[in-house]
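URGENT: need a sanity check before tomorrow's submission.

F., can you look over the Alanine--glyoxylate aminotransferase family protein record below? I want to be sure the sequence and structure line up before it goes out.
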Amino acid sequence: MITSFHPPIRTLMGPGPSDVSPRVLEAMARPTIGHLDPEFVRMMDEIKELLKKAFKTENELTMPVSAPGSAGMEACFVNLVEPGDKVIVCQNGVFGGRMKENVERAGGEAVMVMDAWGSAVSLDKVAAAFDAHPDAAILAFVHAETSTGVSSDAKALCALAQERGALTIVDAVTSLGGTELRVDEWGIDAIYSGTQKCLSCAPGISPISLSAKAVDKVKNRTASVQSWFLDTNLVMGYWGGEGKRAYHHTAPVNALYALHESLVILHEEGIEKSWQRHAFHHQALKAGLEAMGIGFLVDEANRLPQLNSVIIPEGVDDAKVRSTLLSEYGLEIGAGLGDLAGKVWRIGLMGSSANRRNVTLCLSALESTLLGMGASVKAGKALQAAEQVYLQAS
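Structure tokens as predicted:
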């Protein structure tokens, strides 16, 4: 007989989802009201304003898509890419490849700029791609590559695109709320993210923001947007404007309560302080892992604080370690993807998961598990090194 589902308690330190704040969980349990109720519409406007603060933008078209981050990605591409458009796509991990798929499905031509997994996008290669394809209409890249933990220079890449007269589409699924991101100052034209990473919200919603230039391109398309559901011309009848809203779809009411609460929490902390918190706890985790003898995939200059790809020690059974952490400690860390499968673990410090308790748990549980399997790691050093970072800050 199937009965009610009661999930186990986990500490989520993988590539997402992250731990969801109790305040956000409580918000999801509030009474459901209609998606055109005046009070719900009022809350929608507050979500838009809070998202603007998180993205650091004044873009009018800033809203949550009623689906996960992958739908936010698709929304940006199907609205901005027309058949025949040439798009320079940067790939240095899994998600640049998904950008390519979206370009081609929208009828565009993808010009690929390839960099090694774990390396930042090369500005020189992008400049060379523009030289070879001066008619490129869009530059697309991942700001924070979730598959590797590498950060690329979004500010410099957007400046380069502007010089060449191209729009930009930026994947900020893992960066929003966790690392520096300035949409207006950097000149980003279209950006998408997810709720389940550094916003510490439940999965299922994708915040997006489009600049005035991007909106102008959408409004002046010669071909219809291939997706009815994601067509911003239609969706903004529900999310945009003043007063009465036009019905487009039944919004996920309780999930949007959750997003609202998570953005309130972020606003209370302050976006810059959130960036600093992620960086601080990363330093403690880094000190502990390195003291244990575990190294990082990404060089320090381009390393994400909220997504740490670490090298699995030689001879260690990747799956067995992760299984043991989950079963004995209730701790989830992530496996490597693609070419990095079996070579790295991805340890997340995202949103409310970025805290001292989680850093301590991760280091002690990982050390104990590895020593129990006979791995060649240094015993008794990790927690001391992490505590030193915390003591120096106190």
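My own read: The chain has a mean pLDDT of 97. The two ends are 54 Å apart (CA to CA). If you see anything odd, call me.
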